Amino acid sequence: MASPAATASTPISPTRPERSMRGRARPGKGRVRRRPAGFTLIEVLVVIALIALIGTLTAVAMSGGLQGLRLRGATREVAAQLRFTRAQAIATGQPQRFTVDPAAHRYSAPGKREGRLPEQLGVRFYGARQAAAQPGQGAIVFYPDGASTGGQLELVAGQATRRLSVAWLTGEVRVDGQVGGAP
To answer: What ranges does the record list as Basic residues composition bias (predicted)?
Structure first.
């Protein structure tokens, strides 16, 4: 017969969960189940939305806001139309005219390419008066050899000004960054 000491088992403590032979607690025996740690989908989506909102607000604030966006967009568009007009003059072998009406915030290029400048922008034109088709308008004529009558177009938004310069000898269109402002 086996000795009583060998067959006796150790009492289980009521404060400690029962352990298996490997030392791990057995589920359901004196242990409270907890939810797994982590975040819900809603919490993750809210955080992503907040990050996107803060990023957008920061980008707009740093770039000069909506007015700055309008100024840069209009400058790029007008520069592209001026370059198109020069390319048309060279390609067709005929002089081509780019016109701008500062009061009406309108411009036109060859091929019935017309556009409007945002009303919030100020528009100033400096160029040869003889090139203009009508009083109050400005015009730059590009010639088949690439040259032009030259001129400058200034777009103004608040304290910021962007100047588009067209060289008379080469017809090169150049955008002079900020002249007196942030955007």
So the answer is: 22-32
Question: Edge-to-edge, what's the strand order for the sheet holding 122-127?
Answer: 122-127, 151-157, 160-166, 173-178
In 3-state terms, what secondary structure has residue 1?
Answer: coil
pLDDT tens-digit map of 18-41: 555 555 555 555 566 677 788 899
Alpha-carbon torsion angle 156, 79, 168, 158, nearest 10: 10
Q: Which residues contact 107 (CB under 8 A, 6 or more apart)?
A: 78, 81, 98, 99, 100, 101, 114, 115, 117
Task: Give the list of residues 6+ apart from residue 70 with CB closer than 8 angstroms, or none.
Answer: 118, 120, 121, 157
Assign 157 to helix, strand or coil.
strand
Amino acid in the structure at residue 141: V
In whole angstroms, give the CA distance from residue 131 to residue 138.
7
DSSP state for residue 14 in the 8-state scheme:
S
* Rounded Cα gap, residues 120 and 81, in angstroms: 20
Judging by DSSP bridges, how do beta strands 151-157 and 160-166 pair with one another?
A: antiparallel
Tell me the three state secondary structure of residue 63: coil
Report the alpha-carbon distance of residue 153 to residue 17 in Å, rounded: 83
CATH of domain 65-178: 3.55.40.10
Chain-centre distance for alpha carbon 24: 56
